[in-house]
Amino acid sequence: MKNKAAIATCLLVFFVSAPLFAGDQLMTKLYFDNWLKAATSPLDAQISELRFALSELTKAAAELKKEIFTEVKVVIGQKAATIDGVPVTMDVAPVIKDGRTMVPVRFIGEAFGAEVSWDGNARRVTYALEGVKIELVIGEKKARVNGKIVELDAEPIIVNERTLVPLRFVGEHLNATFDWEAGSQTVTIFH
Question: How far is CA 32 from CA 23, 40, 95, 152, in A?
Fold first, then answer.
C-alpha cells in the first residue's frame, strides 16, 4: 500500500507541476529573446554609427580627391570641355589622328598647371611642370622629355591655326591618368 501511495503522490506532483514546467519553458524563451535584444541593441547602434562614419569618410575622400586632382573632360569634335566640372570652351575641338586623341596645346597644359611656351620660328611647343620639360615640334614624330628623345605615335599638328598635341603622350609624361568612353567619345583626364 505504501508503494501505491508513493506512486500516486508522484503522479499528482507530476500532473500538478507539468503546466509550471511548460510555463517555465515559455518564460525561458521570452527571457532569452529579451536578453538577445538587449545584448544586440548596442551592436546595432554601433553598426549604424559605423555606417554613418563610412558615409562621412567617403564624402571627405571625394572632397580630398577634388582638391588633389584636376579632372578634365573633353569630347572628340566638340569645343566644350570641363575642368573640375566647370564648363570651358577651347579654341578648336579635339580630333583623332592616327588613332590618337589630339588636343589644343595651351588648353591641356594650362589645365594641368604647366607652363606652356610656343616658339613660332622653330614651330616648337614646350611644357614645364614639376621638373618635367616636354618639347614637341609640329610635324615631327620625335619629342624631347627632359632632354631625351622619345618617339611619338602621332606628331603635333596645326588645325585652324591652333596647335594640337597627342593627349596621352603629354598627359602620361605629366603624370596624368585617363578614362576613355567610346560611346560618347569622351576622354576624362585626372592630374
Answer: 14, 12, 71, 74
Based on the domain organization, do 161 and 114 belong to the same domain? yes
**Residues 164 and 103: beta-carbon distance below 8 Å:** yes
**Residue 116 structural domain:** 71-190
Q: Alpha-carbon distance 110 to 127, whole Å?
A: 9
Q: How many domains does the chain have?
A: 2
How far from chain centre, in Å, is Cα 142? 34
Give backbone dihedrals phi and psi of 112, rounded to 5 degrees, phi first: -80, -15
Last residue of a domain, one of 43, 68, 93: 68
CA distances from 83 to 64, 180, 189 (A): 16, 16, 9
Q: Give the confidence band of 43 by pLDDT, cuts at 50, 70, 90.
A: confident
CATH number at residue 176: 3.30.457.10
- For residue 93, give the 3-state DSSP assignment: coil
CB 156 within 8 A of CB 164: yes
Percent of the chain with pLDDT over 90: 52
